[in-house]
Every structure is written in C-alpha cells, then in structure tokens.
Amino acid sequence: MKKHVLSLLVENNSGVLSRIAGLFARRGYNIDSLTVGITENTKVSRITIVTSGDEKTLEQIKKQLNKIIDVIKVLEIDPDKEVCRELVFIKVKATDGNRSDIISISKLFRANVVDVGRESLVFEITGIYSKVEAFFRMMEPYGILEFVRSGATGLQRGKNLL
Amino acid sequence: MGSSQRLLGSEIVVKCLEEQGTKHVFSFPGGVVIPLFDAFYRMDHDIQQIEPCHEQNGVHAADGYARVTGRASVAITTSGPGATNAVTGIANAYLDSVPLVVITGQVAQALLGKDSFQEIDITSVTMQITKHNFQVNDVTMLATTLREAFRIAESGRPGPVVVDIPKDIFMTEADYTPIDVETLKHNAPRRPGPQRDAVMRAAEFINAAKRPIIYAGGGVIKSNASEELISFAKKSGIPVANSLMGLGSFPRTDPLSLGLVGMHGSHECNLAVINCDTLIAIGARFSDRVTGNINEFMRDKKIIHIDIDPTEFEKNVPTNVHIQADVKEVLKIMLPLVEEKTYPDWYAQIDQWPVKGRDCDEYCPKNIIERLNKAYEDAYVVTEVGQHQMWAGQYWKFKYPTQFNTSGGLGTMGYGLGASIGIQLAKPDSDVVLIAGDGSFRMNCQELITVSRYKLPIKIFLFDNQTLGMVRQWQKLFHGKRYAQTDLDQGTTDYCKLAEASGIQSFTVENLDDLDEVLEEIKDKNEPVFVRCLISKEEGVYPMVAAGNPIDELYYE
After folding, report:
1. Are B311 and A15 in contact (CB < 8 Å)?
2. How does pLDDT run across B29-41, given as a tens digit for each residue?
C-alpha cells in the first residue's frame, strides 16, 4: 500500500494527540509513524503522520482530520517533491575483521558513525524511505541488532507555507 | 454589550446559560457541583432546573428538548459516576447529531490525576462520542469556552459538547462581560455555500432521470428544510423515501411519500429505492440499516448526495455528485433548476409493489398504532427501541418534522421516557405520546417519578409482550427459535402498579374496545397517563430484511 505523508497544524490543546490517535484507532486507519513538535507559534503544534492506504481511505482520513475542532489545517506532502526526511539510528554487529568494510558502505549513504563499540557500530542516517531501506538492506548481512526511526517530517519547498 | 462584573465561576456558568436563552437545564447535584447549584439557588434568573432520577435520563431529556427546539440543550452532572452515567445519553446524541452542552463537574485541579474521590477523566472517556470537549483550567476562559461549546454544538452538523469544570473554577472569581448571542451569530463568518457546478450537475442528473427517488434523512429536519424538501419533491414529481431519522421531514399522507426504507421498510419503498435509476440522498448517511447489502443497493443507479458533513461522502457508498452545504440552502438553489415533471410509468410500477401483510386481527400492533395516531394526530411521538419503535415508524402518519423522536443511530433502549420529559417541557402546550416496549421501559422506568413530580402530561403507551420482542424475532427467524434470555417474565410484572406508585393513573388494555374506551376517557386529561397494552409475544415486525441482505429480499411472516 502506498505511503502518504500528512502534515497537520493543530491547536496546542491538551488531548489533541489523543483525538487524532483515537480517530485512527476507531476508524481502522494505519499509522506508520507520527511525530509532534512545536512551531513558530506557541499556540500551535505541527504533527506529521505517515499513513498507508488507498486513495479513498486517504480522502476519508483527510476529511475526518479536518472535522476535529483542534485541527487547523491538513496538507498531504509528496516526499518526492517536497522536503521530507526521517532520522534513523541503527546498531549493526561489527567485528575487527569487517568494521572498516561496514564504515565504507555507510559513507556511500552519508550515514554517520555515532558510536563505536567492540562488537557493534551505531549509525545515524537521515533520509526518506528508499534511502533508509537501501541502507538497511546493505547492513542486513552484517546483522542489524536494533534500530529506532523518528518517523518522517516534512516541509513544502519554496515560499509555500502550511 | 453590558458592563463587566466580578463574578464567581459558578455564577458565570449561570450567566452564560442565560445568554443562550436557556430555559431548562437537566441537572443532578453532587459533591463538586454544589457551588454551581448554589449559584442557581442564590441568583435571580429564569432557568428552571429539572432533576431526573438518573443522569442518563437527564441527558436523554436534554436530547429530546434539543430535537424539538433545534437549540442546544443543557444537562449538568457531578464528576465521576455522575459524568459516566451521562455517557450513554451523550453517545445517543452524538449518533443522532443532536446539539447538547453537557456540563460535568470535576474534582478541584489540585486533586486532578490522583485518582481522587469521584474523579474520572471524562474528557478522555467522551472523546469519541462528542463533537468536541473541553476541560476548563482557567476561570478567565470559562465564559469563552461555554460560548464556544454552544457554537460548536449547534453549527454545521450538530452534536454534543462536554464542558468539564473543576470545582475550584466554580469558586474562583473572574471578570464577566455579557454578550448578545444573536449579534455574535449574526456577525459570524458565513459558511461557504454549495458549489455551483456540483448543483448544476446534480440538476442535470435529476432532469435526465427516468426513475428517480429522494432518500431524505434526519439532516433535512436538523437543517429545518422540510418546506424546501416538499417544494422540491412536488415540483420535480420525485417520490420520497425516509430513513428512520428522516420520518416527518415529508408528510406521510402525501401521495409521493413512500415512508420508511431499509430493514423494516415497506415492500414498495424498498423496491422503489433499489430499482431507481437516480437516488437523491438528502441529509442521510447510507446506514447499514438502510442499505442492507451495499453492492445490491448501489446497482445501476446514479447517486447524488447532499450533506453538510463532507465525511459522509464516499464513506459508505460512492457517489456521482456530492454537494457539501446546508441542505436547506442546496434545495433552495436547486428548486429553480429542476424541471416540473411527473413520472406516470414509474408511479405505476411502484403502485404494483405493495404487498399486503398478514390480515391484521382486530387487536394487533398496527391497529393499536393507528388508533393512537387517530387520537393524537399532531402529538410529538417518542419511542424506546425495538419492535414498538419500528411499528411506530411504519404505521404512524407523520405530519411535520420533529414529530418523531427516536434513538436511531445508537438504538438506546431506555431513551424514550427521558426524551419525553424533555419534549413535554419544551412543548408544554402539545401532546406528547411515548410508545414504549416493556424491555426498554424497565431500563429507565424510575423516571415515572420525574414525570409525576413535574406534572408532565405525557401519555405513555406500553406495548407489553413480556419479552425482548425484536431480539426474539431474530432468534425465531435466524437462531432456530432458541430464545436465549429474551423472555422477561410471565406477565407477573404489573407495570401499572409501578405507574400508580408514582401517582400516575394507569389502565390495562387487551383489546381494541378497551383501547377505544381508554382513549376516550383520557382525551382531555392534562396529566400523565400510563396505558399498558398487553400484546402477544408472537407479534413480529414485518416486512423484514435480514442484516446484510439486499433490501428487496423481504421476509413476511
């Protein structure tokens, strides 16, 4: 199913996150990731939701979100056209024998080494799905011990504002 | 604009309700709302507090009140159990889009989050069953929040709003400046009207139709668009089917009226809807109880959907055109665009479809309802939920919008008695008839005490078959007559004594002569009356469509 990135401006009221999460739960919509943060306006927060579903479901999601009183605006962001990234930390098994191989692959992805241990490496990589997933594929043979993904966030390019 | 005053939070609540023109509140006291009730007691105002026996029924009363007045109505409960008791009432209003402002008391802010006595996080509990809810954490925001609650409850697609107020907020002072709500409404930004091109396309579809049907729902009543619907149907010559919530939006006695559609719709109405080539859904939401099997329902037809709530479009059925706006406005704009027409072939086809049910014996639900209808033609009709509700929907000849008041979406057994109380208070000069079943009635029958206490001349007709008739009917048809838990008693419960215990005069009828006699006797009584109509538990609601089947596959007994 196609992934869709939705960017929302919401009133910074208590319970707003529950309202949105509750809507997804009740109507059976998927949440692949969800991030929340402050904005330039202290009364407003910005939420980025990555969801998957067909066009019809996506339309319903957008309309249902707009119906929540605390939601000010909903915009779909096309990750291929706009600025869209997520931050990933990934811990890979490493030995004295393969450590430099792994690091040289990571350089191709512009991943940074943020921790070096005797038996592992932690990389930081920023990107969007295809890049992150390609990096995961390259790391798999060495053994991925664990990872954490921040979930995508995004902004429109140019002078467009949400 | 008046001048600013220094008032307690509790006093601000009373003032804000006065601003809204509130005449009655349905309130039940408790620990954290004592300061609020104290303000009602001390202050000079025109608001009458009505005290139900149970908060659920207070909310149902507010719900009934709101349905017939079109204004948001108010219920007040204490925190914890008071608030949770209100939950079913709130959910009922949510599913039937009824504007309510429910004020719940809350423990003082210093005690929040500590599992304090009677503390429940009611905003979380009601999040999925309210249009919106608030907890007031700053007394300076109290008036604004209450005004916003009314605005949200009444605007667009109406619905319930909960305002949770901690006890210390009631006891803290703030500046209060009165506002004129009417001016505020007048100055509010106007909603965008219907999209012109969608209206034009809809009119084209309608003018090109060979077998059109209007499917009118509760939205027509909410938007006060009954007159516009009547003009539209009469000019275009299009027959009108109603969802349960839409009954009354189009007079049942009109030759174009087909009545109820769906699970218990008539043969001709269901066949007309399923065989039409153009379906014009107005303020209706294609509930599963209307559509039955959705694919069969949609077959070979164009669907035009008019609603104020855009989330209803494409939710249950795809449409050819949808128009998002107030139904009343759309119908006004559409009227000059549709051709004046009649459809003789289509009418003739529909006229061939009626199927006569079993010949009704002298004394059967259909005849009882028709007798009541004759005696109380103009009355507000309220029901509980179950067989009696469907009989009322099928056989009562509704004349005007808001005449039929029933729990449509949630199907809340126990709704009716509370709702009748609200309706009688809102319409003191009208007859209010409650049609109840014994299963529903026993859920909230304690409110007979409230009926009697406030001397509300409600006429209660209890269809007593000593069973949960609708469930029993499903067991009979689909579960091999295994009547699990549906038979309630063997007629040993004398509901008349219950009525008498509350000082309400009661009658038992077992045949039409009895009924006629009682109706004659109570004709001019301006006091509550309770009439127990004993009926056979074998009586069913027919026709019937099994859940999930196409609506043209109807069962008859």
Report:
1. no
2. 999 999 999 999 9
* B507 and B409 housed in the same domain: yes
Which regions in chain B score pLDDT beneath 70? 1-2, 358-359
Q: Which of B127, B135, B311 is nearest residue A63 as measured by Cβ atoms? A: B311
The predicted structure's pLDDT at residue B358: 67
Q: Cα–Cα distance between B414 and B410 in angstroms, integer?
A: 11
Number of domains in chain B: 3
Closest to A151 in 3D by CA, of A135, A121, A129, A130: A129
Q: A62-120 pLDDT, tens per residue?
A: 999 999 999 999 999 998 899 999 999 999 999 999 999 999 999 999 999 999 999 99
Nearest to A18 among B127, B135, B311 (CB): B127
**Chain B interface test: which of A12, A19, A55, A61 (most B C-beta within 10 Å):** A19
Does A60 touch chain B if contact means CB atoms closer than 8 Å? yes
pTM of the shown model: 0.95
Looking at the partner chain, which of B127, B309, B315 has a beta carbon nearest the beta carbon of A19? B127
Q: Find all residues with CB under 8 Å of B489, minimum gap 6, and list them.
A: B466
Q: Are A3-77 and A83-154 equal in CATH topology? A: yes
Q: What is the CATH number of domain A3-77?
A: 3.30.70.260
Domain boundaries, chain A: 3-77, 83-154
Dihedral sign (CA B533, B539, B543, B546): positive
DSSP for residue B544:
B
Q: Which of B15, B131, B167, B301 is catalytic?
A: B167
The reply to whether B154 belongs to the active site is: no
Backbone angles phi, psi at B189, to 5 degrees: -60, 140
